[in-house]
Amino acid sequence: VAETRGDYAFAEKVFTKAIQKEAAPMKLVQQRHKQFQRRMNRHWLCEKQREGSENEEIEEYGRSTLGGLTDKRARRNERRQERNHGSRNQATFNDRKHRSSLKND
Question: Where does residue 6 fall: left (phi above 0), alpha (psi -120 to 50 degrees), or beta otherwise?
Fold first, then answer.
């Protein structure tokens, strides 16, 4: 029931507890636990493959987007980022200077 709801962690706990408590018939519990583990392995493998195909689509989109970026435009963008970073550092310096002057007053 827990497995059909997607609560795989709880289902695993139930099997673990049944094995610890030596539930009868033990052979059946162990057999069902192995079947459950196989299903979970397949489930997680399919999930990984789905995630991988989504990532490939995203990477492909990123490649096509960046493909239109020329070297000249990339350098211009880097310079713009450096200027913005530098102005932020200056603003931080001025802010600290202002705060220290307030402390001294």
Answer: left
- 32's CB contacts (< 8 A; 6+ apart) are 15
DSSP line for 3-56: HHHT-HHHHHHHHHHHHHTTPSSHHHHHHHHHHHHHHHHHHHHHHHHHHHHHHH
Q: How far apart are CA 75 and CA 70, in angstroms?
A: 9
Burial annotation 32-68 (CB, 10 A radius, 16+ → b, else e): ebeebeeeeeeeeeeeeeeeeeeeeeeeeeeeeeeee
- In angstroms, the CA 73 to CA 65 distance is 13
**Does residue 71 have a pLDDT over 70?**
no
Taking only the tens place, the pLDDT of each residue in 12-63 is 999 999 999 999 999 999 999 999 999 999 999 998 888 877 666 655 555 5
